[in-house]
Write a structure and sequence with these properties.
710 residues; alpha/beta; Rossmann fold; 6-stranded parallel beta sheet; 24 helices; 13% strand; binds zinc ion; Helicase C-terminal domain-containing protein; P-loop_NTPase; Helicase_C-like
Length: 710
């Protein structure tokens, strides 16, 4: 459709947001990877020689780890095909994958230290000393080489090229993967994977403008850039010198806007996160419409749990909502999907009496582990139990292997610690009994992404020849593990209490039974009225589970949210303006306040009306009439008041701040969460004793509904 914008029927496709809905494990990822693959080749065939074709977004960073591996493998296969079949031109950029997660799982800029990256000087010294790869074994995002399948991928810093590579020590191939933000701008890879939070990068990193406009320049050594840093390319003055006569202009990229935006686990974009995301998505669509071909990305959502998704989609993307696959004439059947009679999961409900849910969950997980280990020791017992008379002995271990890994799902870190200790105890007990120790791992939101990836990779690659005592057999996890984790061998699941919502329950339980039939044991909380009632209605609850999913609440019209997104959106617009020669921008862009202030005072007559036109467009629906007109108008009116009365006057103040971002009254968002700092409650002296008693008491008797861990 992007090739024929004059065809109104095709153009109208962009006015819809489609959501791919498949039950968990039903092939949703495969469906959108297939679409991305098609778009990759189509873009090359129509002459887009470089730049981003698809941007895949996840609500949480943890979700993207396993998807990164799958996407990378698909991309590598596509690249081989591209070369072999000579698709596009031989001078096109090779397909590559950018993991845009700087600041959390990988470095923003190789010059700054942050997370595991110790800054340029230290890492360069480690490289020269030959210890770099060893130092960063835990920081690899990919361990198993997609080319040769050996676990030999290492990180390598190329000092001259200022590049951080994932490279295979066995087959010597460099993976087409860019994990620092700067390298993503410098290469503009065909697929970008990020969290939704990374949309805030449009305010903080002017090089993000290349995602809409393509790059201005190309440094022969360090790749694309648009705004020179200290007169050189974005590798920086220590690494690059400007060629005589300046850097050449980059070859213009045809239709630089990503053809596809895929939002996975869309149902998680709710409440505050959903509202912030809605405003930034509005901004992205506005930036895209003002660049290249003037066409925004096609937006696709994907989710395993959607209920009354229409309102959520209308608010998030301001376009017409549509679900795929559309239902057929018969329940459970459509042109694209079918329902099969075989079962995936066996559910067992347990309501403890006089014991806490975590204690009982630990017992259940322990029993499952012990029983599987015992059956592995005594194939005869297994044969009797399952009446497997015809099967040779050698086949029995293979039969048990997919049931070796168990996961205990907990709602709080505290219970995670408890189950971890219980597993340690169990491991000792089993060893005393002459059985192998139990390798286990606790995976919560605080576990760094590479550690999470390493645990997942272990379960994937360990096989029957790995000694049992060395195999990872037990996991304890919070909601971190409830999305996107797809492990064939994870089929025993124990829940210490119900997850907060029915949607969460569907997601968590879908971790088991992806290939083989799974067993789910839910230990209900006897203290919670809600959970006791779920136990009493166990059968009907499970039969009607899909209908228990509540609509996702998003309110993009919440003024507090719009107030918070305004500075970031204005700043992103200013970076965008700095790409428009008609607005006479400084070549360095608007990132530094000294450049910005000069531009702002000289070109106010141009910039003011430009912003007056574009800020409202960021907050307004893309397709008119999708949302209520009154709500849309009110939001725009209030936000423009805030701009004119509060934020704009602030930009005129003296430029003490180095970066333009800090000129705003409220700092532009750097993330969509942790916005509210928690407030400590305090008491007056007179009630101090009572308060203390109460505080101690609540801490002691903690039970019932726990706060879910992010
Ligand atoms: Zn290799
Ligand atoms: Zn350079
Ligand atoms: Zn440097």
């Amino acid at each position: 459709m992007r090739e024929h914008p004059q065809r109104t029927d095709l153009r109208a496709e962009l006015d819809h947001t489609d959501v791919l809905w498949f039950p968990a494990g039903g092939g949703k990822t495969e469906a959108y990877l297939g679409l991305i693959l098609t778009a990759l080749f189509y873009d090359r065939l129509r002459g887009k020689h470089a730049g981003v074709t698809a941007w895949l977004r996840f609500p949480l960073r943890m979700l993207s780890v396993q998807q990164l591996d799958r996407t990378l493998r698909m991309l590598i296969a596509a690249e081989e095909l591209r070369v072999e079949r000579r698709i596009g031109s031989p001078h096109d950029d090779p397909f590559a994958l950018g993991y845009l997660a700087g600041g959390t799982g990988s470095p923003n800029d190789l010059h700054w230290d942050g997370g595991w990256w110790r800054g340029w000087e230290t890492e360069a010294a480690a490289t020269r000393a030959g210890t770099f790869a060893e130092d960063h074994l835990r920081d690899r995002l990919v361990i198993t080489c997609p080319y040769c399948e050996r676990d030999s991928v290492r990180l390598r810093l190329d000092i001259d090229a200022v590049r951080l590579h994932h490279e295979c020590a066995a087959c010597q191939r460099i993976l087409p993967l860019h994990v620092s933000d700067v390298e993503v701008y410098r290469t503009l890879p065909a697929i970008v994977i990020s969290t939704v939070d990374k949309l805030t990068g449009h305010s903080w990193f002017p090089e993000f403008t290349a995602f809409q406009h393509g790059p201005k320049h190309r440094c022969a050594e360090h790749g694309y850039f648009s705004f020179p840093r200290f007169g050189v390319c974005s590798a920086g003055p220590d690494h690059c010198t400007a060629p005589k006569g300046g850097y050449p202009a980059a070859r213009p990229i045809k239709d630089p806007v990503p053809a596809l935006t895929v939002q996975d686990e869309m149902h998680l974009l709710k409440e505050e996160l959903g509202a912030f995301n809605a405003h930034y998505e509005g901004m992205i669509a506005e930036l895209q419409s003002g660049a290249g071909s003037g066409l925004p990305s096609k937006v696709l959502g994907a989710s395993a749990t959607i209920e009354q998704y229409q309102d959520q989609l209308r608010q998030l993307y301001g376009r017409r909502p549509r679900a795929f696959p559309a239902p057929g004439w018969t329940l459970g059947e459509s042109f694209y999907t079918t329902t099969r009679p075989d079962f995936r999961r066996v559910h067992i409900g347990v309501l403890p009496h006089k014991r806490r849910k975590a204690d009982v969950a630990a017992i259940v997980q322990g029993e499952l582990l012990t029983e599987i280990a015992r059956l592995q020791e005594e194939p005869k017992a297994l044969r009797e139990r399952l009446a497997l008379h015809g099967l040779p002995d050698s086949d029995l271990p293979r039969l048990l292997f997919p049931y070796e890994v168990s996961l205990a799902y907990v709602n709080s870190k505290q219970h995670g610690t408890q189950l971890d200790e219980e597993l340690g105890q169990l491991s000792d007990d089993l060893q005393h009994a002459g059985l192998d120790r139990v390798e286990h791992a606790v995976l919560t939101g605080e576990v760094p992404v590479p550690d999470l990836a390493a645990a997942i990779a272990r379960v994937q690659r360990e096989h029957l020849d790995t000694p049992r005592g060395e195999r990872l057999r037990a996991l304890v996890g919070t909601s971190v593990l409830s999305h996107g984790v797809d492990l064939e061998r994870l089929n025993l699941l124990v829940l210490a209490g119900m997850p907060p919502t029915a949607a969460d329950y569907i997601q968590v339980t879908a971790r088991a039974g992806r290939t083989h039939a799974g067993l789910v044991v839910t230990v209900y909380d006897p203290v919670s009225r809600r959970e006791r009632s779920m136990f009493s209605n166990f059968l009907s609850y499970h039969r009607l589970l899909d209908r228990m999913v509540t609509p996702v609440p998003v309110n993009k019209y919440a003024y507090f949210a719009a107030r918070r997104t305004l500075p970031g959106i204005v700043l992103a617009l200013l970076h965008d303006a700095a790409r428009d020669p008609a607005l006479k921008p400084p070549p360095e862009g608007a990132d530094y306040s000294k450049d910005f202030k000069r531009w702002w005072s000289a070109q106010r007559p141009l910039l003011d009306p430009w912003l007056e036109r574009r800020i409202p467009a960021c907050y307004r629906e893309r397709v008119e009439g999708v949302n209520g007109r009154g709500l849309e108008n009110d939001l725009v009116a209030r936000i423009m008041d805030t701009w004119r009365q509060e934020e704009r006057p602030n930009l005129n103040k003296g430029a003490e701040e180095k970066r333009t971002a800090y000129l705003f009254l409220q700092q532009p968002l750097t993330s969509f969460r942790d916005i509210d700092k928690s407030t400590a409650f305090q008491s007056l002296t007179s009630s101090q004793d009572a308060f203390n008693a109460l505080a101690t008491n609540t801490a002691d008797s903690k039970g019932g509904e726990d706060e879910p861990q992010p």
